[in-house]
Amino acid sequence: MSLAAVLLLAYGIQLPTFAVLGWLFARGRAVRHWLPAFAGTLLMALAATAWAHGRADAGHGALWPLVLATVTGYGVFLLGLGLAWWLPARAAPRPPDRFTPGP
To answer: How many CA atoms, within 13 angstroms, populate the side-chain half-sphere of residue 57?
Structure first.
């Protein structure tokens, strides 16, 4: 099986999950907030999939490179969306405390 066919198979396995997780991430957010984070995360996950497939040891079986590539892509995608969800919440200004001590 050619490298292009194997990568297309890995991407085909991943894309439905990426679509569902991307939809869950985008709900309730403005497009200008979620689209750059989602697009960057998707590109990083696809690049990680190709990278992991090239680094896998085929001595463990013919299917191992595909498994490693798919799992690596999932991990990078989840990490990217997790950071894109967590970091803006940490960077948002916080309201002042209601309690102000007296003199």
So the answer is: 2
Question: Rounded to whole angstroms, how far apart are CA atoms 70 and 14?
Answer: 7
The residues, any chain, with a CB within 8 Å of residue 75's CB and separated by 6 or more, are 48
Q: Are 87 and 102 in contact (CB under 8 A)?
A: no
Name the nearest CA neighbour of 36 among 28, 25, 46.
Answer: 25
DSSP class per residue in 67-100: HHHHHHHHHHHHHHHHHHHHHHHHHSPPPPPS--
Short-list 95, 93, 91, 103, CA closest to 37: 91
* Whole-structure pTM value: 0.78
Q: What is the pLDDT of residues 34-46, one digit of tens each?
A: 889 899 999 999 9
Tokens linked to 31: 């497009």
DSSP 1: -
Calpha distance 32→29 (Å, rounded):
8
